[in-house]
Amino acid sequence: MPEKKRHLLVPLDGSMPAEQPLAVASALADLTDADIHVLFVSREPVPAKAVAARARISKAWLPRVRTHHARGHAADSIRETARELPASAILLSSHGATGNLDALAGHVTLGVLTDPPCPVYVVRSALSAESQIHRLRHVRRILVPLDGSDEAAQAVAEGAALATAANARLVLLYVLCDQPSSAKAPAISRYSDQIHHEMEAWRDEFMRRGFARERGGRAFSTEVALRCGDPGEQIVQYAADEDCDVIITAWGGSLSAGRAQVVRRLLAQAPCPILFLRADHQARRTTPAHQRVTSPHGGRDNARR
Amino acid sequence: MATGAPNKLIVHDAGTWRIVREGVDPGAERGVEAALAVSNGAFGVRAALEEGNPASNPIMIVAGVYVPADSPAQQTLLSLPDPASVRVSIDGRQLDLASVETVSHVRTLDMAGAELHRAWTFVDDAGRTWRWESTRLAAAADVDRYLCRLALTLSDGTAAEVTLAPPDAFLPRYGRPVSGEPRRAVTVAHAIPAPPLGSLEVVRRVEAASVEPAGAPTRVRVEPGAPLRMEMVASLHREAAERPQSERRPFDELLRRHQDAWRERWSIADVTIDGDDELQRAVRFALYHLLSAATEDGGRTSISARNLSGEAYHGHVFWDTEVFVLPPLTFTRPGAARSCLMYRHRTLPAAKERARALGYQGALYAWESTDTGEDRTPHSVVLPDGSALRILNGEQEHHISAAVPYALMKYWRATGDDAFMRECGADMLLQCALFWCGRASPVRGGYEIRNVIGPDEYHTGVDNNAYTNAMAAWVLREAASYLSRLEAKEPAVADALRVRAGIAGGAAQEWRRIAEALVRSTSRDDGIVEQFDGFFGLEDVDVARYRRAGVPIDIAMGPAAIQRMRAVKQADVLMSAALLPDAWSEAALRRNFDYYEPLTAHTSSLSPPTHAMLAAWLRDDERCRAYLEQTARIDLGDGFRGAAGGVHIAALGGLWQAIIFGLAGFSFDEASVAFDPFLPRGIDRLGCTLRWRGRLLRVRIEAGGTVAVQVTGMPCLVRVNHVTRTVSADAPAVFGFDHAVTRWSAVDQKDGSGHA
Predict the structure, then answer these.
(1) Which of A192, A212, A283 sits opposite B554 (nearest CB)?
(2) What is the model's pLDDT at position B352?
(3) Is B154 in contact with B171 (CB distance < 8 Å)?
């Protein structure tokens, strides 16, 4: 079966030269074997020939990217273009060049994240582009935080695909929170009759639960880690301590008050790129972005692997 | 479920004899497989989906056969592929939940018949509707046999080509058409070597509209209205064993013998609870696993922490078997309890060697025991946070050598099995007494036991743990008493026993003296017993916050921090009251319960049932019901997720004890039985059947205040509250009782004497 193309959608607003965003995109595209599609959104019409210039893409990059233009609301346009391509992933900076860095993220990024049509990579603006490029070109550790729920476990498939592609290690992290949990499926038993047996059994069960929907063997190494405390804080700390290169998390898409504390923390403090997936509450199988492909007929092929 | 099938959480059937699970949730699947597992004590098989699923762990766990483990556990029970597993394809496409549209999927554990049923209706790619129905069981009467019956029915559409193949590990043995029914039915056999046990052979008889003779896979043509039927008999063959009589028994005969065996088991073991269906179902669930946990194999095996339903704990045997599991078996399957005690007798040489190696006399049983009785407790483990934790249980948790005598004496007193006591039990009792005699160190005119771990394993290396000291003193007194009585009644036998055990004359007196002089833990002015030296001076911690959050406090805080805290993992001081209630007064127990219960994190599954029993003794309705409920949900709650590594067999034994010793208020000695019942609000009636010294006692307790006792066998002296009567087989008796009368007040008023 011929290899099908993957498309990485990179929205640019022209507020700054595209060199660094495209360098990050290039690293990610190489990692996921995808084409780069740049989307420039404006309120006014822009001639096709002028899109690259308005997006401030240098000539050196033009052979590597395909440009698109859309008019209207930025987040809506990004989502729409992603659906049309269809994109296997979107790459966003947490803030635009003119954005308020004190804010959680730019309104465009937040707008896309709350209803993404496909997985979304977010690179925090506060981090140097060089370090993020280096991480994406040398992915060694991929962190997937899990809370025991089926929704969170949907990130495992994406992590597995990326770990396979990058020959990286996949770390499944559970943060034990000492606050009353709202999780429907606690990931650790309240009983630990003999801690040495219990931890071994927990590791095994946590791993099995994480990979419960995955078939076949795994061509990458995996690791289970446990931390105690505030989940967002511990995930960020673990990623920094253990030099993780990508964090992958599935979330419900709502940033309303009191919700998505982990997502907020990641957007504010993650030391590496973050891949956000929209959790499917129906708990259906998700096809990893790395394997989500364009069918020969132009439609999306979400067939089960 | 990817197929869009109904995926309800646990659904219990309205009846209390069945556990029903609808749908398949990958995240909970391993817990479901353990909770609904079938076992006969010789092996257990998890309730995995026959056709395979990524979330499944389809294994048969073989009792008593240990192989090297790729973990600090050193040894683990032998696991084999589930012989009922079968790879199925329909018209060339592999069948599994993901390949078809599921209409309904239900697994039902029929606890009455110890059978696992599965009914799956699905629509294939061609739009045809299929019905998959299977029944599996671990034969109770023929314990080397595992049976599966499967029917695959095509309801509509065109005929289909179906292939059946065993897991790859199975090798073909033979295949031939059945005589007289060419190509309508075929028998195929496969086997898998299972060293060091022997082998596992699987014989399948497949019947359908058309079956191709031998081949792998078996090719079958299935037509609407002509189902594919398969009967599988799997046999565990031990290399050195003789071929059993059941070798050639047909499927239906094996099935009938199994059903007869379970009918008999339930007739002498069932517990009925009117007014609380959840508790009723939970106690039957407990009994189902308890009754199927052991086989009477002369001491070759015992019951491990997760019985044969999961791989957690690697099949290692702990003190919980003696303290929590064997008492229920003593009163329901005494032969199985005897066999488990014989396991401890078989491993007595290793226990003696272990004591000797550590510089003690007598017998120190392994904290984690496998086949030989050598200790298999790891010395360290790497926690998921990357830190190394030194495991001291094997070095310091010595109360295992009190647990074994505890189960032994309970068994002996309940059964009157003098032959076993003489041949096996006395050796164990005396060797454990010798151990405690040497383990206690003289100090300031008394004796103390230093550097131990009690049931509260948060605190290591403690001195004078209240539970350990109390149990050690009890072992010494019991051994002294037994030896003295034997010396008086049968001096020659006593002499022989002493010689065999290497015990000098006068040992009984010395043991009594040490027991009396053994340090009793400090009690405050208000009568609170200190759990160990220095416990009262530890730091405060808000245990309740962690309990509410359902978070193990020791994992959240870490082992070093929890060691400094006044937090208790499980009943410890209270555990000694649970096992030795006659050493306590009601008032003292109440004060200590009120002090220790709030400090207890219950991160051991053994803790809730113990507290339920104590709360019943103290007539604490609210806490009794809360702990009963918590115990009942250890494996059955949260969609079975807690059972993923196997059911908590000791907690299930604890539930039985909480109901029988707690709610029914059952107690006994060699001469009589007694009931001081307490039925919490909501329970209208409690019925139980108990075996005691060759008799069968059928007891019915009404919340209104009556106890009806029926005895099968010799007449029996029965006390209920203050009234004692002889009950004979031809004259069932009805007693009145008062919920407020406890085991202590009943005896106090009857005898006019109090307890210390």
Answers:
(1) A192
(2) 98
(3) no
Chain B within 8 Å of A49 (Cβ-Cβ)? no
Of B736, B717, B714, the C-alpha closest to B671 is: B717
For residue B174, list its beta bridge partners: B189
Is B313 in Cβ contact with A197 (below 8 Å)?
A: yes
CA distance A275 to A245: 11
Cross-chain CB nearest to A191 (options B1, B27, B605): B605
Which residues of chain A have a CB within 8 Å of the CB of B72?
196, 200
Q: List residues bridging with B141 in a β-sheet.
A: none
The two structure tokens encoding residue B116: 């696992």
Query: Left, alpha or beta for B28 (phi > 0: left; psi -120 to 50: alpha)?
Result: alpha
Single-letter residue type at B293: A
Distance CA B701, CA B687 (A): 6
B728: its two tokens: 């004979």
Instruction: State ipTM.
Output: 0.89
- B36-265: CATH topology is Beta-galactosidase; Chain A, domain 5 (2.70.98)
| Residue A35 · residue A64 · CB < 8 Å | no
**CA Rg, chain B, in Å?**
27
CB atoms near residue B464 (< 10 Å): 24
Q: Where are the domains of chain B?
A: 36-265
Q: Does A183 touch chain B (CB under 8 A)?
A: no
Q: Best residue in B393, B458, B551 to probe A by mutation, most A CBs within 10 Å? A: B551
Closest CA to B91 of B60, B115, B66, B127: B127
Residues of B in contact with A225 (CB under 8 A): 384-386
Residues 6+ apart with CB under 8 A from A3: none
For residue A133, what are the contacts with CB-CB under 8 A and spacing of at least 6? A23, A24, A27
Rounded to the nearest 5 percent, the helix, strand and coil shares of chain A are 35, 20, 40
Chain A residue closest in CA terms to B555: A228
- Tokens 């009723």 -> residue: B280
User: What's the rounded Cα separation, in Å, for the pair B628 and B632?
Assistant: 6
The phi, psi pair for B591, rounded to 5°, reads -65, -45
Question: What pLDDT, in 10s, does the model give residues B185-220?
Answer: 888 888 888 888 888 999 999 999 888 876 668 889
DSSP string over B510-544 = HHHHHHHHBPPPPB-TT-PBPSSTTGGGSBP--HH
Q: Using a CB-CB distance cutoff of 8 angstroms, which residues of chain A are in contact with residue B548?
A: 180
Grouping H, G, I as helix, E, B as strand and the rest as coil, residue A304 is coil
Tell which wins on pLDDT, B741 or A177.
Answer: B741
Buried b (16+ CB within 10 A) or exposed e, A74-92: bbebbbebbeebbbbbbbb
CB proximity A228 to B under 8 Å: yes
Cα–Cα distance, A210 to A214 (Å, whole number) = 9
The minimal CB distance from B71 to the residues A179, A185, A200 is found for A200
Quote the minimal CA–CA distance from B559 to chain A in Å: 10
Is pLDDT at B327 greater than 90 in this prediction?
A: yes
Q: Kindly identify which residue of chain A lies nearest to residue B6, measuring between CA atoms.
A: A282
At B249, which amino acid appears?
R
Q: Looking at B358-424, list the stretches that DSSP marks H as alpha helix, in order from N- to C-terminal side.
A: 393-396, 400-415, 418-420
Burial A123-135 (b: 16+ CB within 10 A, else e): bbbebebeebbeb
Write down the pTM of the prediction. 0.91
Q: Residue B401: name the closest of B371, B442, B441, B360 by CA.
A: B360
**Which amino acid, B330?**
T
Identify the H or E element spanning B654. helix B649-657
The pLDDT tens digits for B13-56 are 447 999 999 999 888 899 999 999 999 999 999 999 999 998 89
Number of Cβ within a 10 Å radius of residue B449: 22
Round to whole Å and give the CA distance between B568 and B530: 12
Neighbours of A140 (CB within 10 A): 14
